[in-house]
Design a protein that fits this description.
Low-confidence stretches: none
Mean pLDDT: 95
Helix content: 40-55%
Number of helices: 9
Number of strands: 6
Strand content: 15-25%
Structural class: alpha/beta
Strand order of the largest sheet: 3-2-1-4-5-6
Shape: globular
Length: about 180
């Protein structure tokens, strides 16, 4: 299945100050997160972001939080590892059929959230360059497990061109620069 620009929400999970710099390849992940937020905002697609126990882990990293505050994104705090441990809570935040998940940590919150959303009937995607764990091994174990559970794993470039679908799209030039 392809990501459909008319029915996809971006879910950014726990990209917080006290943990993010400890994530393997955090600088690359950060760049891809900013670019993904930019793309979703330009396409007027919904963006939801979470913070895991912000009293202990701090808030969303500063520049990303500024971007999210500038656009019409929604935030909620949580203590459970899954963003949606109960299907009752999903409807308050996700109004689309598809969900693209980015954030940290892949083997904990990303994995549990993706499996719960899949269980509730959503089409779930993970952008490989937009997720991370403290170790590459934990990330890769999680990605393997997600694949086994039919969660779509895609690259940033795949995301861009699935959202555009056509070189005549008004954002084609602007977005295609981001993959170079």
């Amino acid at each position: 299945m392809l990501i459909n620009s008319s029915s996809c929400t971006l879910l950014l999970v726990d990209v917080q100050e006290k943990l993010f710099n400890k994530i393997y390849d955090s600088k690359s992940i950060y760049k891809h997160l900013l670019n993904t937020v930019y793309i979703f905002s330009q396409l007027n697609l919904p963006i939801v972001y979470t913070e895991q126990y912000p009293k202990g882990l701090g808030s969303t990293i500063k520049n990303l939080k500024q971007k999210l505050d500038e656009i019409d994104s929604k935030k909620f705090e949580k203590t459970s590892f899954s963003c949606f441990p109960s299907n009752k809570s999903v409807d308050n935040w996700i109004s689309t059929k598809q969900v693209l998940i980015c954030g940290i940590e892949t083997h904990i919150c990303i994995l549990q959230t993706a499996l719960d959303l899949k269980k509730y009937g959503y089409e779930v995607f993970i952008m490989n360059e937009g997720v991370g764990s403290r170790t590459l091994e934990n990330k890769m174990l999680a990605v393997d497990r997600l694949k086994l559970n039919n969660i779509g794993i895609l690259s940033f470039e795949m995301l861009v061109f699935e959202l555009l679908r056509d070189s005549n799209h008004k954002h084609f030039r602007d977005f295609s620069i981001l993959v170079k």
